[in-house]
Amino acid sequence: MADFRRASGSMERSHYSSRLEEETRIYQSCLNVHDLPDIFHYWSNRHVRPKLEEFGFSAPEDMFRKYALKQSMIRNSEKRIVSLGSGNCQVEIDLALHLLSEGRSDFVIDCLELNAEMLERGRNAAVKARLSDHLMFIQTDLNQWEPTDEYDLAIANQTLHHILNLEHVIEQVKRSLGPSGRFVISDIIGRNGHQRWPEALDLVQAFWRRLPPSYRFNRRLGRYEEQYEDWDCSREGFEGIRAQDILPLLIESFHFELFIVYANIIDPFVDRSFGINFDASADWDRSFIDRVSERDEAEIHTGRISPTHMVAVVGNDQTIPLSFHSPLTPTFCVRNPSRPFVSTPTLDPSDTYDWAWPHSDRSQLEFVCRQLHESLTRLKVEKAITEERTAWALGLDREIAALEQQVRQLQKEFRQTKRELEERTNWALQLDAENQKQARLIARLTGDMDRLAWAQALDRRFHKLLDGVFRMFRRVLRSLLVRRF
User: Fold this and answer.
1) Of 128-137, 165-174, 231-240, which gets the smallest average pLDDT?
2) Is residue 258 part of a domain?
3) Which of 16-30, 157-171, 382-396 has maximum average pLDDT?
4) 134 in a domain, yes or no?
5) Which of 52, 65, 121, 421 is the most exposed place for a label (fewest CB within 10 A)?
6) Is residue 465 part of a domain?
7) Residue 30 to residue 88: CA distance in whole angstroms
8) Domain CATH code at residue 220
């Protein structure tokens, strides 16, 4: 069981690493993260901007500026601001310039970003704007972020829906905010992976059937979609990975001071994939977008569908009253995942297309034929690439087989060498034992010889002394004999 847990943990880390690499790759060369088609700006200016202006700003960037200035006036000490997922730091640079223009210079903005290339672009832009003293650039994975400072303001601009460990990040923000600190957010709070919930997808498909074929071409993926394909954007990177959990976790952790929500079924028609097909200057296009947006708002206000976009200000001060568009409170806008799906009324009982739009059949046919030709060309190219890759893969497979044969031969030689090495090792050990035995014998003989050398020297001294005694005895004897005779 322990081995299984370790293996599972290793797989999860590997999967997380691959997602992290994909997220980094997607944004490392992205110069304009929030680049959107003209029809989006038409829709947002007509249908979203008035909602925001009721609360004193006209865009999320204005909201960041407003609350940064408000926080800068609370106390006299240096203000610390943290920006989660700052990207190229365009919002942070704009925020710093705004504070300076209002006479506030006692602030530092910590720019937290995973992507080193984006952070470096932000650093260079800050140098050009002479803001290096006010912006700090910190490369970090927010999923593992541990703040070391207390902040007066935290901002998150389209960041939270990229975060996997959302509970951790929200907990760290709450912990790092002072008693009067605020967390200012602009984000996407719809279904994970930016998909539609069934009740909203039903309405998207109903409007989809009213679109001319040329408007159903997905520019980002290069494909025609007869029916809108509800793609899960979170399969590879972190796009929308926990979007539907953002609002419930914020409700659980913070007090809401401002809460503005909007949009759901309008999203696919104004995003980067299909919005570019619309002409923001054409009457039919604008009218279609207006109809979708009006139906969108009506459904959100009844509670049949939940909003996908949010701008909000939250904090720890429970005494501040909530500002919102009735009845759209935070709790009202949380979708209950267990809620049974009830199909919303369709727009028109007519089948397939609604041909009441000012586009000639010939132009649409030409468009479809052109797209078919382009698709066939792509298929030929892809086929050639596939064949080339297949040939390469087969060649690689043969090389791998040859390498495997070499490996097997090397393994055989290794086993033989190992056996010989073991035999020689045993022989060497035996020889070493014999050498040690001989060394001990030689040591004993050396000791004996040392003792023998001492005995020989003593023997020579004894014989020399004895010889002297004999000579003395002979002299005494001769002397006695001479005296006697």
Assistant:
1) 231-240
2) yes
3) 157-171
4) yes
5) 421
6) no
7) 9
8) 3.40.50.150
Tokens of 466: 């004895």
* CA–CA gap between residue 452 and residue 219 (Å, rounded): 107
Strands (E), 140-249: 151-157, 177-188, 217-218, 223-224
Question: How many folded domains does the chain comprise?
Answer: 1
Is 201 exposed, middle or buried, given 0-12, 13-18 or 19+ CB atoms closer than 10 A? buried
Amino acid at 314: V
Residues 273-323 pLDDT 10s: 999 999 999 999 999 999 999 999 999 999 999 999 999 999 999 999 999
Q: How far apart are CA 150 and CA 82, in angstroms?
A: 10
Q: Which amino acid is at 309?
A: H
- CA distance linking residue 323 with residue 316, whole number of Å: 16
Q: What are phi and psi of 311, to 5 degrees?
A: -120, 135
Average pLDDT over residues 180-192: 97
pTM of the model: 0.70
Q: Which residues of 456-485 are buried (b: 16+ CB within 10 A; e: fewer)?
A: eeeeeeeeeeeeeeeeeeeeeeeeeeeeee
What is the chain's alpha carbon radius of gyration, rounded to the nearest angstrom? 43
Is residue 390 one of the residues assigned to a domain? no
- The string of pLDDT tens digits covering residues 105-140 is 999 999 999 999 999 999 999 999 999 999 999 999
Structure tokens at 421: 């090495």
The half-sphere exposure of 411 on its side-chain side, counting CA atoms within 13 A, is 6
Its domain, for residue 238, covers: 13-359
β 151-157/79-84 pair status: parallel
